[in-house]
Amino acid sequence: MQAVQIDELELFEGWSQRNAAMRVRAGFPISSGTGTKSTAVVYFELEPGEHLGSHTDSAEEILLIVSGRGEVTIGEEQAAVQAGTLAVVPALVRHSVNNIGEETLRVVGFFSSSTVLSVFDEPMEPFATRYFSTPMIEEEATVGTAA
């Protein structure tokens, strides 16, 4: 059984060098990297005024707002969200989340696949890449290996 306590997660911090408001703390506690076959979970936090950069995901995602107030943009649609709100993000549709409140915005995303590729519009530091996957793809493991 996999059981994860959200407030004990080790979160990584990511940000954009081009846009000071694009900053997030996140972790992927459940994915194919932890043994799941068909689901993945991301947990992330945004401080007031911060936003998760625009990006697409290879799998459908359901966002659950755990606490705080925000604005979610999915494709051309925008909606105000708060604790208890669910939002469905179709696969490969550009989306973003902004914290428009006065407290930390906490969000859990549930994916319909255990391996998810996310492509951001802007590179995420300190990783210097626009591409993230669950689990992270190790470049040295895929380059120059025989099939």
Report on the structure:
By secondary structure, the protein is mainly β. The protein has one helix at 139-142, and strands at 12-15, 23-30, 40-46, 51-57, 61-67, 69-74, 77-82, 86-89, 95-99, 105-111, 117-124, 129-133. A 6-stranded antiparallel beta sheet has the order 1-2-3-10-5-8, with no helix packed on it. A 6-stranded antiparallel beta sheet has the order 7-6-9-4-11-12, with no helix packed on it. The model is unreliable at 138-147 (pLDDT under 50).
The average pLDDT value, as a whole number, equals 92
Number of strands: 12
Query: pLDDT under 50 segments (min length 5)?
Result: 138-147
User: By helix and strand content, what is the structural category?
Assistant: mainly beta
Using the 3D structure, state the CATH architecture of one domain. Sandwich
User: What is the number of helices?
Assistant: 1
Quick one: overall form? globular
